[in-house]
Design brief:
This protein has helices spanning about 10-25, 25-30, 50-65, 90-95, 95-105, 115-120, 120-130, 140-150, 155-165, 175-185, 190-200, 205-210, 220-225, 235-250, 255-260, 270-280, 280-300, 305-310, 375-385, 475-480, and strands at about 1-5, 70-75, 80-85, 110-115, 135, 230, 325, 330-335, 345-350, 360-370, 395-405, 415-425, 430-435, 460, 465-475. The protein has three domains: about 1-35 and about 50-165, Potassium Channel Kv1.1, Chain A; about 175-300, Serine Threonine Protein Phosphatase 5, Tetratricopeptide repeat; about 325-375 and about 395-480, Sandwich (Apoptosis, Tumor Necrosis Factor Receptor Associated Protein 2, Chain A). The protein is about 40% helix and about 20% strand. Bound molecules: 2-acetamido-2-deoxy-beta-D-glucopyranose (5 copies).
Length: about 475
């Protein structure tokens, strides 16, 4: 991908002035006449030679004509030295750090010391300062970002942060998101860190099956395990991946215990818990550290969760579901030509994850309206009663999910619905949004606000269909929320 920042760099005006100065001396003498805004005036025709200008700047760097500073780039722990003939004016225009280094120097050479990964990309970096564009590969993002940060080239730094945020789902042989996460943490860039964390959370099944999984740090593993918004097949899948990670990384006993205590055992059926308890080498090793949680999980499976809550004061996450894709928890829903009309759909889930309830089924009716009007808007329409019933463009999409029948079993249970929305990014299907609500997406206020489903090219349409996955999560407030 190519970042073209030509129009966004404030220093660009300076660059224009510089090259105009090289080419047409007379114009610079009357320099004050140079207009600050580049747009053509009324009635004037724009002659645009920006591309040629960039080429001349590049040639200036390559040929080193009239160079007034030599950059000697030394590589840490190596004798390799890279020499670049540069121009102080260009460097100073783009970077305050270069400006200061140039003012303080006492020879025509500036000695710079860089790590090997940064030194390897130093030419590319300097070329950006001359030309204002740069091509970036996934593995080059971090070293270039380091250089942009060190020399305070903010436009490049921001461009690279945006590039990383938009390329989380790109294919790479060994994975890159975990590295980007570690870098963002080290840098203190909370926005990039959170984007990486969200991507890993929402794509956890793929990540757990990839080679990248083994390379995540204990700290990242623990922060993922705390999250309720993980999207994965089942809690058992998470346990298996955890076992693989611990086998590969051999962390300290404390990290292993903390990780094991973050598994939500209540969400694993008792038959599977028996197997883990007797056959998982990890469980056999750390059994004493999680014995209380396993006991609690078996109690949870033995009776109705509401009964359990009557006798025990428990307050822990092992009863809180994550976003499980397995069929007991919900269903995919592919809506073809979503703008056409309202659609309805029925599916079944278990009443709850407790062994007491998991065989009982609840039938849900889901309704999708592409252009539903909020009450406030609807009333203004009826006022102008005569208005032709044309397409109502300002209607909003909405999903409502209600149980087909009611049951005494629902007492004390809040069913939280989650709609996972997929979209196409860089030609790939990725999770784009996760919306939580109780009955209707109206509650979230922003359901598919920027999906623009009318547009054939909307990234939310995959082969002209909207790809949703609905998860129904029974929440026992008496178990999860502290009891008074
Ligand atoms: C001038 O041309 C370049 C590429 O040829 C283009 O990117 C740029 O937007 C043009 N500038 C204006 C002011 O139209
Ligand atoms: C650099 O100098 C050479 C020889 O003096 C000249 O041919 C070339 O056009 C110059 N390059 C630039 C970019 O001015
Ligand atoms: C300037 O030169 C002196 C002596 O030659 C040297 O000690 C000093 O470190 C130099 N300063 C810089 C900023 O390179
Ligand atoms: C998850 O990541 C894999 C690559 O690791 C990618 O192929 C896939 O499209 C991603 N899926 C989602 C839902 O983000
Ligand atoms: C219950 O757990 C939550 C989250 O861990 C915590 O904020 C809250 O203080 C706990 N309440 C009690 C009564 O322990």
């Amino acid at each position: 991908m190519s970042l073209s920042l030509l129009d966004k760099i404030p220093a660009q005006l300076g660059l224009v002035a510089l090259v105009v100065g090289i080419g047409f001396h007379a114009a610079v003498v009357e320099g004050a006449a140079l207009k600050q805004d580049a747009g053509p005036e009324n009635g004037a025709t724009l002659l645009n030679h920006s591309m040629a200008l960039v080429q001349r700047m590049e040639a200036l760097l390559v040929q080193g004509n009239a160079s007034d500073v030599t950059l000697r780039v030394q590589t840490t722990n190596s004798d390799e030295v890279k020499v670049i003939q540069a121009h102080g004016l260009v460097l100073s225009l783009q970077s305050d750090v270069f400006d200061e280094l140039l003012q303080r120097r006492n020879s025509s050479t500036l000695v710079l010391s860089e790590t090997p990964d940064c030194a390897a990309l130093f030419d590319k970096f300097i070329r950006y300062l001359y030309c204002g564009d740069i091509s970036v590969r996934l593995d080059q993002a971090i070293p270039l970002h380091k250089l942009a940060s060190k020399y305070q080239v903010w436009s490049l730094q921001q461009g690279l942060t945006r590039y990383m945020t938009q390329h989380l789902s790109s294919d790479s042989p060994t994975g890159h998101v975990v590295n980007w996460y570690q870098y963002a943490v080290q840098l203190g860039d909370a926005a990039l860190r959170d984007s990486c964390l969200q991507y890993l959370s929402w794509n956890l099944s793929s990540v757990m099956q990839s080679a990248e999984w083994g390379s995540i740090s204990g700290e990242l593993l623990l922060s993922l395990l705390q999250r309720s918004d993980l999207i994965l097949q089942s809690e058992l899948e998470l346990y298996d991946a955890l076992e693989a990670w611990i086998g590969q990384n051999q962390p300290s006993g404390l990290t292993a215990e903390n990780a094991l205590r973050s598994v939500r055992y209540g969400m694993i059926p008792p038959q599977q818990l028996f197997r883990l308890q007797k056959q998982s080498p990890l469980m056999l090793k750390y059994y004493e550290s999680v014995r209380d949680l396993l006991f609690l999980a078996f109690q949870f499976h033995a009776a109705s969760p509401i009964q359990l809550a009557k006798y025990f004061d428990v307050n822990c996450s092992i009863f809180t579901p994550r976003n499980y894709l397995s069929p007991a928890w919900g269903s995919p829903w592919v809506i073809n030509n979503p703008t056409r009309d309202d659609r309805s759909f029925s599916f079944q889930t278990q009443l709850g994850p407790s062994g007491h309830d998991s065989a009982k089924r609840v039938t849900w009716n889901a309704l999708f309206s592409p252009r539903w009007l909020p009450l406030s808007v609807r009333s203004t329409y009826t006022e102008h009663g005569a208005m032709q019933p044309t397409r109502i463009d300002n209607g909003r999409p909405r999903v409502i999910i209600t149980p087909a029948t009611s049951s005494p079993d629902f007492a004390g249970v809040g069913f939280q619905k989650t709609v996972i929305v997929a979209a196409k990014q860089q030609g790939k299907v990725v999770v784009r949004h996760v919306y939580n609500f109780h009955q209707s997406t109206e509650e979230t206020g922003d359901f598919l606000v920027d999906a623009d489903l009318q547009r054939r090219t909307s990234e939310y349409l995959i082969d002209s269909s909207l790809y949703l996955h609905i998860v129904v999560k029974p929440l026992y407030h008496s178990l999860i929320v502290s009891r008074k």
